[in-house]
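We modelled the chain as a single entity of 453 amino acids. Its sequence is:
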Amino acid sequence: MPSARLPPTAATTVRPRPLPALPSWPIRALFVAFPLWWVLGLGNLIWPVLAVPMALALMLRGRVRAPRGFGVWLLFLFWMFVSALAINDIRIVGWAFRAMLYVAVTVLFLYVYNSSRRSLPVRTIAVIMATYWVVVVLGGYLGVLMPQGGFSTPVERLLPGSLETPYVRELVHPTFAQVSGVEQGYPPRTQAPFTYTNEWAANFAMLMPFVFIALAQVRRGGFRLLLLLMLPLSLVPVFLSLNRGLLVSLAVGLVYAAVRSTLHGRVRALLVVILVAVTAVAVAPALPKRPEQAQGESNETRLTLYAETVQRIGASPLIGFGAPRPSEDSTNPSAGTQGQLWMVLFSHGVPGLIFFLGWYLWAVWRSRATPSRTRLWTHVTLLIGTLVLPIYGMLSSGLAVFMVAAAVSWRELDAESPREAGTAEASTGGSLSAPPWQALPAMRDRGEGVHPA
């Protein structure tokens, strides 16, 4: 007698096996333990080092997702590698270092984006990034109280003599503040725990929104009190750093957040902005100011360098020069510095800048909708990160903060509106299975489940 077959409607449905959770320790190790890496001389090297276990975890888990628009960033990475053809000297070392950083923050983005909301919840991310902000503030006070401070590190002692250049020494020999302009009337400008004072400013401004997320997530306890105490205290190194870009970008971000929140019936953010503004106005007169002559010279130097960068890129507009080059004016910094936008343009050409800037603008645009507290503040971080591109370098930590904010914002958006996710899945080996151009952003938002302000 023939065996009976179940009708198709009665067939047993096999559910896919749930993916194992990605551990949160690499994110904690990157940001919370950053002071340790800085003391060891690994502050600039830890990003590619810890990207390795994150990449392995992604590959072992399989099914790596990427959001709509990720192809724009992949195109930038491709063009960045192509630009190496323009280098035939020792500058290839600097290019390779920056290439590792770009790849590392790519892995960081995918890791956070693919982490589940259970294994790496918003509260955990907010506490981690707010802790990192506290580290930045404490580093600022190191620069204020001990501007001449600095120390040798184990990594510095282990470096072979063939790699000992001024640039490499800056990366592995921590100093607390920039004091080169003191003789012209500048106060020392804090930079700990980073290599440059502008890097300190970019990180402070971009991390501030995570502090507000953490305050919304942590309702009581010592950590909340610490953040509330550090907010007014942080204004001292902010003003002493004399970073006008920090003040302008942060002010724009906070006012923007207050307006968006007020339009959605939440006035607390407006009160926070008013409190910060009143405190800033009260503190500002007591702090030293940049001499007018020195301020004019600083502006003139930057504008001259930007003009030189634009003029020189005409000789290699497609792939750029691979890395910054000495300025034609020996008294100026290298062409292709003093701002991430100019570094990308000079190093990787016009197409590289289009892809890089396209990724930033897409991140800001896609994160704009439905301003829940979390995604409003991550959106503000992305906005601030875009505003400072012409004046601050983003490698390495600034770009890492930007990637975390983008990953959290889009992960939350996709979780709330699954049809909006539009994700491209990866093979179990971890490489994107769809061609990069298929992940390019749509010309317009579909808008399912989204309510732009």
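As a brief sanity check on the tokenised model: The longest strand covers residues 65-66. The CA atoms of residues 74 and 436 lie 7 Å apart.
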